[in-house]
Amino acid sequence: MHDLTSQPITMIDSSPPLQHHYGELTRLPPQIPTLECNDLPSGGAVMEEYCQLPLIDLSCLNSTNERERLACAEAICRASSEWGFFQVVNHGISPELVRNMRREQVKLFQTPFDKKATCGVLNNSYRWGTPTATCPKQFSWCEAFHIPLSRVSEQACYGEFSSLREVMMEFAAAMSKLSRVLAGVLAENLGHPRGVFENICQEINCFLRLNRYPACPISSEIFGLVPHTDSDFLTILSQDEVGGLQLMKDSKWVAVNPNQDALIVNIGDLFQVWSNDVYKSVEHKVVANGKTERYSIAYFLCPSFDSLVGSCMEPSIYRKFTFGEYRSQVQEDVKRTGRKIGLPRFLL
């Protein structure tokens, strides 16, 4: 085991003191049963198997050919059932907008760590590592800004990062539009109007998360982001060319090759509940990279905290619950056990 606490913390650096915190965890006795800390797969295991996610051309949804439109919608729904993940191209978000958003994101993350941690930018949403971790396998080697879209238009949220505001507002609006197109296709497949999610998931209830995964000198031992499912309806991910995303397919981890022209879409827990398990919320993780930092941006399609979530068909296999109740239960489970238990708690 590396002696990770012997190195000084340099606060003027842009990276948070991840190595120091990880080193402290290696010296702590487990606060929960040993099995909880040891039964997760290694975060840095070399993947020998790569997957090609279903790749869907969304321009076909607007085709004048009805057969093409139906085939595109069918491909979205099939991928959501069989994979829980898929990629989309010709999605309507311009490469220039993605580049501008990435440029502003990099500029923000290159700010010295102590400034990011204390300046309160973006609704004081900065976070790093895993504060609830009680052993190394529960620790994520990353930093992020998790931003409620209800605040993205407020100038006061940006402080000196004023150039970020206009780009983020445009990017959030584009991701919001795309998420509703996809959710509409998935809803229609189950016999509901395409616009059903307009009221369920209003834009002010959704989130953007800006992620940075610094290069990790101990990448063979650690996750960039621990295995989890998403607690929303739908997630859309824009990632760089570095790679590191892995998902659970047929009871094994497979790595996703990055595609610079595509956005990645995955089903969240709430859509699995709403669809009565027709669509699958699949466990995924990020593997730390020993040499290169990685950037990504995720959009989360969410309802309000007091929205009631239940199956759109009967008999339901889940009891009804509010989004706020679900989030609270997830946070309680993570704090108590170090991991998300999620949907099994809400089965009837």
UniProtKB/TrEMBL annotation:
Its EC number is 1.14.11.13. PROSITE patterns: FE2OG_OXY. InterPro entries: DIOX_N (IPR026992), IPNS-like_FE2OG_OXY (IPR044861), IPNS-like_sf (IPR027443), Iron_ascorbate_oxido_reductase (IPR050231), Oxoglu/Fe-dep_dioxygenase_dom (IPR005123). It comes from Populus alba x Populus x berolinensis. This is gibberellin 2beta-dioxygenase. Belongs to the iron/ascorbate-dependent oxidoreductase family. GA2OX subfamily. One of its GO terms (biological process) is gibberellin metabolic process. Residues 203-303 form the Fe2OG dioxygenase domain. Keywords: Dioxygenase, Iron, Metal-binding, Oxidoreductase. GO terms for molecular function: gibberellin 2-beta-dioxygenase activity; metal ion binding.
